[in-house]
Each structure stands twice: as structure tokens, then as C-alpha cells.
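Subject: design request, 243 residues
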């Protein structure tokens, strides 16, 4: 009777199946997530420093009477600056990513506004406001640099390099229109009521309603162009996710 060889025993030391869930793409997600959290944590720290510093400086100027403006109007003016609102949006978005959150539709829109708005903040400050503004040395200069240069650059670099990917959709771009529109309406309405405008290029008393409106619309259009660029980037790069 012929002998039949028994099947060879399975080698337990053989290489694991690369398709196994433990060795698929998810195996790399914790490392990617850690890099994203660390990067956005740095962004959040810088944004928080700038927000706290600028608020303390504004309140201090109001309380010591150097501005001649009461505490209430000072707070309203503080949150009327595009710089403050975009830094706040960056702080919220960065903190969400730091905590490993999966943003819903509202947070996606806020994040897109944060990225595009903070880039506008940096560009407008560098080319339009920095040449004509005088910031006192010391802490005010440091806070000004963090909010207008460090946070915009850092946010843009982190968004481009580490993501996250897959968060910008068509309706996200459409939703991002609301913030610049609301800001323009608020700025013109508040300025008309109080005579105070946050920036000279939108000061109706200086440039007139037509030019102020034109400046606001230009900023809105540029923000939407940047938003479309973010959407296109999502289409051209692999989707990523926070671990």
C-alpha cells in the first residue's frame, strides 16, 4: 500500500498576512494621529497664548483709562477684530484635533474658516497693516507677532503637511461663506452705529461705503478661493484620519 505524506505543519513563525487588520493601514494610524495631535497642540498653544495676551492687554488699556473706552465697548471691539475671530476659530479647531475629535458639519465649516481666515489675517497684516502700524515693544509686540505671523504660518503648514484629510466637502465650502458675510455686515453695521471700525481700509469715514464694501467683498472672494483650493487638495490627496 502506498504511503501518503501528511500535510506539512503550518510554520507559526511565518510572516503574518499583510491583509490582516492588525497589519493593514490601521496599524499606522496611531503614529499618524500622534503627529497630528502634537502638531495641532502646538497650534492651539500659540493661539491660546495670543488670545489671552491680547485680551489682557485690551482690558488693561481700558481699565487704566488710556483708551478712554469703557469695559463693555472694549470687549465688543475686541471681538470685532478679524484677527481675534480667526485666532479663536483656529484655537477651537486645533483643540478639537488635539483631543482626537471627528468633526461634524459645523466644525468642518469652522475649521475651513479658521484655515482660510487666518491666512488672510497674516497676509493683510503683513502687506497692509504692518507698514502703517506702530506696536509698543515688549509683550504687546510679542502678542502681535504670535497672532499675526506665528499662528497664520503654523496653521497653514500644519494643515498642508499633516492634515487631517477628507474633511472639506462641497457643502463645507458653501457653508464657509457665512462667516465672512456675517463679519462684513456686522462691521459695517457696528461702525455705522458707533463710528468705530477695526481697520482703516474698511473705515467708511475714511474710504467711503463703496470702497469699504469693495474691500470686504474682495476679502470674502479670496477666502472662498482659498476654500476651493482646500477642497481641491482633498480631491487630489489620499484621505487621512485621526487615530
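Subject: RE: design request

Done. Sequence follows.
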Amino acid at each position: 500500500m502506498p504511503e501518503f505524506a501528511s500535510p506539512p505543519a503550518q510554520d507559526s513563525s511565518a510572516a503574518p498576512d499583510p491583509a490582516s487588520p492588525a497589519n493593514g493601514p490601521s496599524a499606522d494610524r496611531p503614529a499618524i494621529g500622534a503627529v497630528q495631535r502634537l502638531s495641532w497642540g502646538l497650534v492651539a498653544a500659540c493661539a491660546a497664548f495670543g488670545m489671552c495676551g491680547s485680551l489682557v492687554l485690551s482690558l488693561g488699556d481700558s481699565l487704566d483709562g488710556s483708551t478712554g473706552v469703557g469695559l463693555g465697548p472694549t470687549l465688543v471691539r475686541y471681538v470685532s477684530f478679524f484677527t481675534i475671530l480667526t485666532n479663536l476659530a483656529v484655537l477651537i479647531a486645533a483643540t478639537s484635533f488635539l483631543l482626537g475629535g471627528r468633526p461634524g458639519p459645523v466644525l468642518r465649516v469652522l475649521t475651513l474658516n479658521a484655515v482660510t481666515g487666518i491666512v488672510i489675517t497674516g497676509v493683510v497684516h503683513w502687506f497692509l497693516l504692518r507698514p502703517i502700524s506702530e506696536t509698543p515693544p515688549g509683550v504687546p509686540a510679542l502678542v502681535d507677532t504670535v497672532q499675526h505671523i506665528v499662528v497664520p504660518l503654523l496653521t497653514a503648514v500644519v494643515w498642508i503637511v499633516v492634515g487631517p484629510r477628507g474633511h472639506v466637502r462641497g457643502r463645507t465650502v458653501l457653508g464657509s461663506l457665512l462667516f465672512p458675510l456675517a463679519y462684513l455686515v456686522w462691521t459695517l453695521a457696528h461702525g455705522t452705529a458707533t463710528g468705530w471700525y477695526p481697520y482703516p481700509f474698511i473705515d467708511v469715514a475714511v474710504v467711503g461705503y463703496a470702497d469699504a464694501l469693495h474691500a470686504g467683498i474682495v476679502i470674502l472672494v479670496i477666502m472662498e478661493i482659498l476654500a476651493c483650493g482646500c477642497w481641491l487638495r482633498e480631491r487630489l490627496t489620499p484621505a487621512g484620519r485621526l487615530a
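Residues 29-236 form one domain.
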